[in-house]
Amino acid sequence: MLLVAGIINAIGVTLFIAPVQLYDSGISGTSILLSQLTPDYLSLSFFLVLLNVPLLLFGFKRQGAVFSVYAIFAVCVYSAAAWLITDVLPIDVSIASPLAGTDLFLCALFGGIISGVGSGLAIRYGGAMDGIEVVAVIFAKPLGLSVGTFVLIYNVLLYIICGIVMGSWILPLYSIVTYAAGSKTVDFIVDGLDSAKAAMIITTHPDEIARAVSDEFGTGLTIIDAHGFYSDTPKTVLYVVVNRFQTVKLKTLVKGVDANAYMAISPVADLLHGGRRVTLIYTGSTDREFEREILTQLGDTPRTRHTYQYEHPSNARENSPSDLTPLLENDDDNLFIILSDNEVEVDRILAALASADTNLTSRGRTPPRFVVLGNARWNRFNNLDRAMFFKDRLVFISTYHAKRDAEVVAQFDRDYIRAFGALPTLYSYRGYDAAVIFCPAMYNDIEYDMEDRRYTPLQSTYRFRQGEGSHNHVNQEWMRVNYNKDFTITIE
Asked: Quick one: which of 39, 42, 61, 311 is 20 to 30 A from 346 by CA?
């Protein structure tokens, strides 16, 4: 697939972008600019190899040998295919696109989409098409930036330089269309397009709403008997998955039946219901509360079960339950859900998954595609190897998370260290947030001040609402915290 990715990327750039002097993003765009400013024998292909290969080798230690080899191969294919199209094949790309002519918008749009397909395929299959991503991973954090922000700044500066050097802003502005189309296409290829939404409906009229939703959308619902913690009253929760075009109609329908119903709608993404192979990993210490939550969310989703049992490497036998390699030996998108509440077991399972991933990729196998769904309560563990969170693409669903690269959190960290001579803990953030939210409200009507208001102090967003029949306010904001393989953390 890396061969195909390189060829597709070359088609997008050489047949649509370069002929009308538009600019791709990253090193590819830089190579186009340099090829325009230098003699003809210094071609686009030459600069692609000249600039990308050193950057990819520079990131060898951080990204690993397999990634570096795959990325260099993809870039070389891209360069060779670009040379064939521009210099060998009987295709005139000197003054116009052979397919879109001189229409700048069409060239920008389709060039971005096609090159985005190539870049997305390269990333999906363990490589890369542009060295700027490697540079971003290495330098973004020391500069206090996210990887995405670093790449964005690079491209903005690139387009500004192009406008200054070429004495025109028309082409750089159209190149922004190329960048946007390419970025969205890469996201689609890498992550897939999952428009499903999960709706949790708390209502006193469950039967009426379930019947109305089923009749309207022709879909099934899950009815969950729940109990209000603060109100100490029985409740009913309806769980239903709809597509993004049905969410507005769903809200209208539910409010038409029960005006006091509380409804939370969130992206299903592709975590539990997006075609992944779901594996529940059990141990001798199962977190029964977490298990109930997961089984409720999974519903009828197919899943397999694996029971992990630690064996010392010196005593490990064939088909040992501590070897998780067989779980990764497939071409599927995998989701592993670790149901243990034992710190040592969790740490061993995360390490075993990371080791199996490394072993497979080092043997030249297709890199496994997987994420691990963890329990937010793991944040209370003190001795987990947090590096495994990134290596295993760990995902948490939580009501709180302090984004450490945010300026407000970074400033708090500096002030805390200056005051106490130690790093802040999870409880430091939570204590500060509690003071910021509750102390001002105590001088007024605290219930009025808190009801349905949104706060964003240190840890993500809070939105408090009173539960039915309760005088207590509960945070309604949930987030998905993703630990990415490039050692970044993103929040949805």
From this structure: 61
pTM, 2 dp: 0.45
**Is 492 a member of any domain?**
no
Distance CA 326, CA 335 (A): 14
What does the pLDDT look like over 154-163, one tens digit per residue? 888 888 988 8
Which residues make Cβ contacts (< 8 Å) with residue 203, sequence separation at least 6? 209, 236, 238, 254, 257, 258, 260, 261, 262
Residue 272 lies in a domain: no
- Which residue segment(s) compose the domain that 458 sits in? 407-476
Q: Of 267, 294, 324, which one is at a domain's C-terminal end?
A: 267
Strand partners, 226: 235
In this prediction, residue 151 carries a pLDDT of 77
Contacts of 148 (CB under 8 A, 6+ apart): none
Of 487, 430, 483, which is closest to residue 459 (Cα–Cα)? 430
The pLDDT of residue 79 is above 50: yes
Residue 54: exposure state from Cβ atoms within 10 A (0-12, 13-18, ≥19)? exposed
Residues 69 and 84 in one domain: yes
Question: What SS3 class is residue 219?
Answer: coil
The verdict on 146 and 294 lying in the same domain is no
CA dist list (Å): 208 to 212, 216, 254, 359, 468: 6, 12, 9, 54, 19
**Same domain flag for 90 and 212:** no
Quickly count helices (H) and strands (E) in the chain.
18, 14
Q: Under the phi-then-psi rule, with left for phi > 0, alpha for psi from -120 to 50, and beta for the rest, what region is 300?
A: alpha
Name the DSSP letter for residue 139.
H
What is the pLDDT averaged over residues 39-68? 74
Number of domains in the chain: 4
Please write the tens of the pLDDT for every residue from 258-278: 888 887 776 555 556 556 788
CA triple 277-282-286, angle to 5 deg = 135
Q: In terms of domains, do 151 and 285 share one?
A: no
259/366 Cα distance (integer angstroms): 52
Considering the domain architecture, whether residues 237 and 323 belong to the same structural domain is answered as no
| 159 and 141 fall within a common domain | yes
In whole angstroms, what is the distance from residue 433 CA to residue 69 CA?
Answer: 46
Residue 339 in contact with residue 282, Cβ under 8 Å? Answer: yes
- Write the pLDDT tens digit of every residue in 87-143: 888 887 777 788 888 888 888 888 888 888 888 787 767 677 777 767 776 676 577
